[in-house]
Structure formats: structure tokens, C-alpha cells
Amino acid sequence: MKYLILIFCLLNPLALFSATENVLVQLFSWSWKDVANECEDYLGPKGFYGVQVSPPNEHAIVEGRPWYERYQPVSYKINSSSGDLNSFKSMVRRCRSSGVEIYVDVVLNHVAWFPKNGETARGIADSLYSKYHYPDYPNDSFFHKCRNGESDDIWDWNNRFELFNCNLANLPDLNTADRRVQNTLRSYLKKLKSLGVKGIRVDAAKHVAAKDLKEIYADIFDKEHIYQEVIDLDANGPVRSDEYFHLGKVTNFNYGQDLGRIFQHGNLAYLKSFGEPWAYTPTDKTVVFLDNHDTQRGHGPNQFLLTYKNGDLYTMARAFMLSWPYGQPILMSSYYFNDNNIGPPTRDLNKNICRDENWVCEHRNNLIAPLISLRKKLVSPHLSGWWTNNSNQIAFSREKKHLFVFNRNNYPIKKISNLNLEHGDYKDLNSNAILKVFNNEIHLHVDPNSFKIFSKL
Description:
It is built from 11 helices and 20 strands.
């Protein structure tokens, strides 16, 4: 049977493409109760496929309570600042009942910073830990020591050995080639699977050898539902994205940089070939995003980053991401911040989080909401038509029934052509206005620095 499936996929590339149409959202540092409410109130009704939640395991309590304490595992108890095991179970059940799958951000590369020699710290679920002594890793034999325990941080970011075996930002590096470590991490992943989790986003996957991850992942989550953080900005780096393709998808960090650069400073006409022709990873192996919790805060490539702080331009770029046939998109949903280290605001869980003035909830933008369900209906990875003024105005059609128009010039678009659309009435998905298409030339009005999406009635 598996050979028949393989032959079908090779003969029918749409079978590989279809899953990329499912839209995810990262609800960064949300409580489990808030996530569950959002699944029922908004994500399910709007057609989101899944939600990426912050690491649910016990983490360190860092002075000042910065956001990054969630990425410092103390144990694999399901108990974090988002809630305990029971609230996590309830969240998964309620989201799945709403048609929304849960993806968990997992940290497999390292554990929490340890306190000074001789001192003991306590995790958020009251687990005690000290230098190289953690509940699941009781002594230093579970860890890499790339320089015999002295200055074990990564020094040379072009050195493959250091990337796999030295500490990332002082965080004790697990010896993921050790069968004991692999079994501990597998037990954690199996626990998540048993609780109804659909998939995982693997933090710092680039710092774990692919052969180790293969043993850790084996036969737990389907590869379609694993996406791995691999910051691979050029083909000459010491660790490449394609090393991880056989394990699942990878995150494309060039995507947000390139799209941000073009929408801010470039020419939209360049986007005609946006995707694999730009030496990007294969579309069915790629998760794309404009920003995530790291790049928002200056980590990773962010020179041309667009975030909620860019207002309408950010909205337009996200609309393009959701419209364009490359990769599986994930939207960011943030809280407001000026200090890059600050953790999530405290809040009253009895009030809707998206009515809280401290939370952005940019995934709820009404201008992009119609694209969530529309993308799920699209099955072809090809455009059916393309138009440009050879500058900052573009339009393209998909499946001859859907029209996408983007204008970054300082004058309106009034006429487009060669879109290969079926004749008939088309509805503006935001205003419900009707556009009549009855020949090759289409008359419409798209204001400067705006976009419109039309679908055939």
C-alpha cells in the first residue's frame, strides 16, 4: 500500500501541496484557558487548522519573569505558566471539538540555566534542580561538554561540531545521541501525543543532529505535523535545512526577510516567481511566517522584519502570504512590548484576551480573516494569471475563480488584464461589493497601499 501512495504522490503533485493550505497561528504565551476560548470563539469558526502553543512543560522561574523562561525546561511535567495538566487537557479537547488541532513548541536541545555551584533552584511546578542535576537528568553524564566543562558555549557559529555539542546561550546542552536522553525525550513526546496533540514545532532543531532527532521522533508524530526550527540563510552554512527534510518540515527564515524587504523597499513585480525559484526549500517541506516570537525580539534575521508595529503594511504582507501558493503559513499573535525581554502581561482570565488592551491579537484582523477559509479551498499550486505595472502594483488569479490585487504605489489601480478569470460576478471578500468580469480587461479601483481579494459567486 505504501508504494501505491508514493506513486500517487509522484503522479499527483497536488497531493503534496494540499496540506500547505492549512493555516496555523502561534498564540504566544497564551494561557490554556485563553487558547481554548479562542478555538471556540474565533479559530474554529474562521477555519484555522491549528494553533501553536508555547512549551507546556515545567520551566525555570527567571528573575523578572522574561518570555524566554518558557524555553528553559526543568522537567517534562505538563505544568507551566500557561496552566497545569488538567487545563492543558481541557484546552486540547475543546480546541479539537472546535476543529482546531494543537501543535506544541518543544525544546529538545537543552535544559534550564543552572544556578551557581552549590545552589538549588525551584521550577514553576516546584521541582528542584542544581548544576547538572535535573529531575529527568540526575548527573552530568546526560550532557555534552564540548570543552570539558569550561566555557562550553558556542563560539564559532560556522563550526558544525560546536553547533551540535556546545551550549546555546549558556543553556546546558543535552547529549541527544545518548539513548537515555532519547528515551526521556520520546516519553515526553508520547505523553503529548496521548493527550491529543497533533504535531510539534521543534525549537533549536538546528542544534540537534538529524540522526538524533530521527531516533527521538520515531513513530510518534506524522512527519506532516512536525516542523523544525532550522535557521539556514544560505546554501553554504554548516547545518542545512535539507538534512531535516526526511524528518518533517522546516521553517524558512529567509521568507519573512525577503517579503518584508520587498513590501518596504522593493518592487512587488519581483514576486512573480516567489518561492522555490528563489532557492527556497520545497513548498511541501516548508512553514513560512513574517515574524515569530524570536524575530520580533531581535533574534535571528530581522533587518527587514515586519510586525504588528508596522500597521497596515504588515496586514498587506500577511494577506500576500495567505494568498500566495508557497509553504504552510503560520500567523503570529502577540502581546504589546517595548522591552524585548518582557514576559506576557498578567491578566484577568475571566475576560476575553482579545479585549485586553495589552494583547495585540493580530490574527483577528478583519481584512485577512476571509483568506483563512479561502486558502483551505485552493488545491492548485499554480497561478492561473498574473498582471503587473512592472512596479509596485500586482494582481494574480488562482484556479480562474479568485483574484488577488496588491498596490504599493502612491496612485490607485484602475484597470488590469490577462488574469485568465472565468466570466461572471465576483465578490470583494471584505466589502461584499460586486466586480463584474466579462472580458480580458477588468475595471476596478484599488487605493494606494491597499489590497483587495475577490472570489467568483
